[in-house]
Known about the structure:
The protein is mainly α. The chain has one domain. Helix content is 82%, strand content 0%. The protein contains two helices and no strands. The chain is rod-shaped, with a radius of gyration of 19 Å.
Amino acid sequence: MSNQTNFYRERAAEARGRADDTQLSNVKESHIRSATAWELLASRSEKSDRLREAEIERKAEMPAQVSY
């Protein structure tokens, strides 16, 4: 998992914590929406990490091509 993904997960956890700490329903909903958005970013980042790793593996398995 990349640092970026970790950052997104940390922000989501922070937003959920703030939602739990508040008594105001509109503020709680705002923090929950924020946490959801951070989680979406984390999911996208994880997908990008997986695709990047797969591409690196694919290229590593390709035979070297020599061009003249």
